[in-house]
Amino acid sequence: MSKEIAKTTEGHISPFEQIKRENDAGMEYWSSRDFAKVLDYGDYRNFEGVIEKAKLACFNSGHRLEDHFVDVTEMIEIGKGGQRPVKTVLLSRYACYLAIQNADPSKEIVAQGQTYFAIQTRRQELGDERIEEERRLLLREEMRRHNAQLADAAKGAGVVKPIDYAVFQNHGYMGLYGGLKMEDIHRRKQLKKSQKILDHMGSTELAANLFRATQAEEKLRRDKVQGKAAANKAHHEVGAKVRQTIQELGGTMPENLPVADGIKKFEAQKQKRIGNKDAAKKKEK
Predict the structure, then answer these.
(1) Percent of the chain whose pLDDT exceeds 70
(2) Residues 98, 57: contact at Cβ < 8 Å?
(3) Cβ neighbours of 150 (radius 10 Å)
(4) pLDDT score recorded for residue 261
(5) What is the pLDDT of residues 17-55, one digit of tens each?
(6) Who's near 93: CB < 8 A, 6+ residues apart?
(7) Could you tell me the strand order of the sheet in which 83-91 lies?
(8) What is the pLDDT of residue 84?
(9) Could you give the maximum distance between any two Cα atoms of the chain, in Å?
(10) In the prediction, which pLDDT does 81 show?
């Protein structure tokens, strides 16, 4: 496993970056034993209490422990070329942040580490937020496209009038959301009348609805469904099947997922970034 050496903005190599490791998949992590040495814990047993407090903080914050703390056995060198196994905890960046918040504050290196991991964790959060924004933008656009295709398939099945299509859409939502209609979801999410539920879904919820829409369209066409009642039934069955899959995988039911910020803001920001890039390219020419 490789160690990556990085420099801080001041040009100095951070001791916390020096001990950072990466696995074969490029995921970063830290060894609790390396971490204890950097924090000047002469006896590793004293640092084990810090790790336990960090685990408790992680659990209380609602994060999965196994995503941030991994117990392993490592071999360390002993006298005359021998080795012996020792218990070690592999830590994520967030785990390191929690650990250093619970370390001995009288140590100068601990104070430095608290600042370092607070900044780095926030940078990672901002990066994750940007990734989530991009996923939402992509999935929302896909939803628009596939909803149009679903409407065409429903029309072919006999769902022609706008009021009939609204009923058809509600059957899909009721299947996926455990009986909730669009207006029920809207109310449950505490959205304003002018706000569309799809515009306030996170990527996970959008993905579930995209799967519902694509599979419903496929079923209508494949089974050559005819009649409004049959189309409504097919859409409800698809929604219910997606819900069942989420439940079997241990996922959160869509009606319980958090409400996301309106996607229009991110769409405007993306267009602005594209406009700035185009302007920069023209200036270069």
Answers:
(1) 85
(2) yes
(3) 25
(4) 84
(5) 888 898 888 888 999 999 999 998 989 999 999 999 999
(6) 28, 30, 117, 120, 121, 124
(7) 2-3, 21-22, 28-31, 83-91, 69-77
(8) 83
(9) 85
(10) 73
Amino acid identity of residue 160, one-letter, is V
Helix (H) or strand (E) holding 77: strand 69-77
The pLDDT value given to residue 186? 94
Separation of alpha carbons 128 and 136, rounded Å = 12
CB-side exposure of 114: number of CA atoms within 13 Å?
Answer: 12
Dist. CA 77–CA 9, nearest whole Å: 35
Amino acid type, 243: R
Which amino acid belongs to residue 93? R
Q: Which structure tokens are listed for 261?
A: 């910020």
Report the C-alpha gap between 124 and 147 in whole angstroms.
34
pTM of the model: 0.55
> How many residues in total does the chain contain?
285
Single-letter code of the amino acid located at 181: K
Contacts of 232 (CB under 8 A, 6+ apart): 167, 168, 171
For the chain, residues with pLDDT lower than 70 are 1-13, 121, 123-128, 266-285
Residue type for position 196? K
If residue 258 lies in a helix (H) or strand (E), which one and from where to where? none
